[in-house]
Amino acid sequence: MKLTDLGPRNGSHSRTFITLLFGTVLGFMFATFISSTTVRLPEYYRQREPPTVVSDPHTGNDLREAAGPEQDVGQHGAHEEAHAHENASLAQQLQREVRILCWVMTNPSNHKKKALHVKRTWANRCNKVLFMSSKEDPLLDSVALPVREGRNNLWAKTKEAFKYIYQHHLDEADWFLKADDDTYVIVENLRYMLYSYSASYPIYFGCRFKPHVKQGYMSGGAGYVLSKEAVKRFVENAIPNPQCRQDGAGAEDVEMGKCLEAVKVLAGDSRDSVGRGRFFPFIPEHHLVPENVDKDFWYLQYTYYTPDEGLECCSDNAISFHYVSPNQMYVLDYLIYHLRPYGIVAHSQPLPKKLSFGEIVWAKDATIPPKECPQQQQAGTLESLEKSEKPPNT
User: Fold this and answer.
1) 394-to-83, 212, 250 alpha-carbon distances in Å
2) For a surface tag, which of 74, 306, 334, 392 has the fewest beta carbons within 10 Å of its beta carbon?
3) Other C-beta atoms within 10 Å of 215: how many?
4) Which helix (H) or strand (E) holds 260?
5) 35 CB burial (10 A radius; 0-12, 13-18, 19+)
6) Closest Cα to residue 381, out of 258, 266, 272?
7) Which residues pair with 180 in a beta bridge?
8) What share of the chain is helix, strand, coil (3-state, %, to 5)?
9) Residue 386 has what DSSP assignment?
10) Cβ atoms within 10 Å of 275's Cβ, excluding its own
11) Kind and range of the H or E element at 42?
């Protein structure tokens, strides 16, 4: 073998060694860089729960499934400039004259997740509030009713709740509002609507649906309010009545409508003076935004009065919205009770006149054009309830 034959092989080995050495150094540097940039990330994420909602504000969905704040968001002080010039004397007068007991349907799994945020927002404006559950909880001072939880037991829970109120709180209010733990209520507007009516009248109000019950019935999710006389008739006469469903199953709002009709409690018209609705079974945007739902959506088939689209859907004195998330409770509270457009000074509407029982609108009211003032419609009587025609085909 010649010495010159070893030259190329030694050069090749040198190049290979240099390449290997360079790759090793480069790989080590890259690995060191990666490890140095990620050493803090695992610790950072271990200390925090992964987000449960999309946090990008551009999506618009970050509040939809949020669980609500851990602590109370607080209130603006009454001495602050925007609130110091408010005149709440009329609202305070109605709080004394139209006493409302609000009871909220909830369950142990929702006490902290939903009901607590109702308590921190709208419920404190009721004259009295009760949280009806199957378990006592000092967080809410909830009432433990003798019922099982679950959708198939809502009717049983509703009956037990009204029996409890009848036995312990009947004389503490004139009107009795049932709401879910995802319902938001503007209590002042509810008092304003009820001002015209005596609590001695057998009547109840809500978002009125037309199937299943001759005079219609009120949506459970939107909330419904019974007069004191209606509560008496429900507990004393309806619950033991064979015409009233005796077991705990069935759709709570439908069964309530059937029972109240059986004891001649009237399904009232809650629309405002120009025929706009005040109780709503969905969040505001679903009612306000035109063509937000399909034309064959069940709500459009169920509603007793043909709903309008856009701003015409909803009264300026709207009372309730349903499927409101815990975070949205605080958003609505801020928008309604704190946000003020500067330079626009609102004056209270005059209180409506007190209505005699003969002037109350009920089963025949749908024969009147929807934009005509409901309070000017033809009156009816309790006796004619049994002779009333079926709900209109709206």
Assistant:
1) 44, 15, 26
2) 74
3) 22
4) helix 252-262
5) exposed
6) 266
7) 105
8) 40, 10, 50
9) G
10) 19
11) helix 41-46
- Dist. CA 372–CA 326, nearest whole Å: 37
At 85, the amino acid letter reads H
Query: Which of 166, 118, 173, 141 is closest to 326 using CA atoms?
Result: 118
**pLDDT 10s digits, 192-230:** 999 999 999 999 999 999 999 999 999 999 999 999 999
The DSSP annotation for 59-98 comes to SS-TTTT----SS------TTSHHHHT---HHHHHHHHHS
Summarize pLDDT for 81-122 with one digit per residue, the tens.
666 667 788 999 999 999 999 999 999 999 999 999 999 999
CA distances 137 to 75, 107, 118, 140, Å, are: 25, 10, 15, 6
| 3-state class (DSSP) for residue 117 | helix
Residue that has been written with the tokens 């679950």 in this structure: 150
Decide: 370 and 275 in contact? Cβ < 8 Å.
yes
Q: State the Cα–Cα distance between residues 237 and 229, nearest whole angstrom.
A: 11
Nearest to 362 by CA among 377, 347, 372, 349: 377
Length of the chain: 394
